[in-house]
Amino acid sequence: MARIGASPLAFPDFHGATRRLVLVNLGSYFLLAIAGVAAPLATRSALAGLIFNPTTFLHGWLWQPFTYSLVHPTDLVLGTLFELLSIWFLAGFLEAFHNDTWIMGLYVASVVGTALAALALYGASVSMGLSRDTIPLYGCFGGIFGLLMAIGVLYGDVQFQMFFVIGIKARYMALIYALVAIAMMFGTMRMYAFAQLGGALAGLVFIRMAPRRGFSFVFSEKWYGIRNGYYRWKRRRAAKKFEVYMRSQGRTVKFDGSGKQIDEDHDDEKRWN
């Protein structure tokens, strides 16, 4: 049965999208820590704009679904360390089978899906007249849930070492995380737990819909197809104009559908040699 890394305790290679995600989150943590010491009041004001809060988001702070995942409270060192190790472990594993663009797309889709799930829960609470649960979102657990969902669905038979001791298949580990999040929905952190499930759902939608080579590859192929189609149209148009011109000169010239001249005086074998 497949395992992660060369040994049960080994971490995947630290490169590509994995390295970028870890370093960006780590840099954000230290940047906020330094800013909190140098200018605590300004830092608290900036954090209010970076974390995701449904109320402020609906008032025009539209960047929050992208920035909240970079906010890591400096007093929660172990929590931040666990997040960074999880990104390294999960993204590094996926990067052995997918390219950087796919990994980054999955992570971003999961982060945004987490925020949208929190927004949906807030909207449902308001419409039903329930208490407006506006616990702000921060941290990258939504992206981690998306990565975990991808591994559980695509590589469910791979065996992880939970807590570095217990061997467990990826699909069961993803299920345990989901059950813990569902259980949290019955407590005071229901919006946070529901949002994490939203990140997992966004990750599932991404892996079902996203091309294996990433959206950039598909867009580039579409672009080249459109460009080449335009050039073929110009060639056919020029061929028709040339036919009209040659008829005015008393000669008959024919072109095929791709704009190539048809030589009626030679057979097909000679024509293409």
From TrEMBL:
<keyword id="KW-0645">Protease</keyword>
<dbReference type="GO" id="GO:0006508">
    <property type="term" value="P:proteolysis"/>
</dbReference>
<dbReference type="Pfam" id="PF01694">
    <property type="entry name" value="Rhomboid"/>
</dbReference>
<keyword id="KW-0472">Membrane</keyword>
<feature type="transmembrane region" description="Helical">
    <location>
        <begin position="135"/>
        <end position="155"/>
    </location>
</feature>
<feature type="transmembrane region" description="Helical">
    <location>
        <begin position="162"/>
        <end position="186"/>
    </location>
</feature>
<feature type="domain" description="Peptidase S54 rhomboid">
    <location>
        <begin position="62"/>
        <end position="208"/>
    </location>
</feature>
<keyword id="KW-1133">Transmembrane helix</keyword>
<dbReference type="GO" id="GO:0008233">
    <property type="term" value="F:peptidase activity"/>
</dbReference>
<feature type="transmembrane region" description="Helical">
    <location>
        <begin position="76"/>
        <end position="97"/>
    </location>
</feature>
<keyword id="KW-0378">Hydrolase</keyword>
<dbReference type="InterPro" id="IPR022764">
    <property type="entry name" value="Peptidase_S54_rhomboid_dom"/>
</dbReference>
<keyword id="KW-0812">Transmembrane</keyword>
<feature type="transmembrane region" description="Helical">
    <location>
        <begin position="104"/>
        <end position="123"/>
    </location>
</feature>
<dbReference type="GO" id="GO:0016020">
    <property type="term" value="C:membrane"/>
</dbReference>
<dbReference type="InterPro" id="IPR035952">
    <property type="entry name" value="Rhomboid-like_sf"/>
</dbReference>
<protein>
    <submittedName>
        <fullName>Rhomboid family intramembrane serine protease</fullName>
        <ecNumber>3.4.21.105</ecNumber>
    </submittedName>
</protein>
<feature type="transmembrane region" description="Helical">
    <location>
        <begin position="20"/>
        <end position="39"/>
    </location>
</feature>
<feature type="transmembrane region" description="Helical">
    <location>
        <begin position="192"/>
        <end position="210"/>
    </location>
</feature>
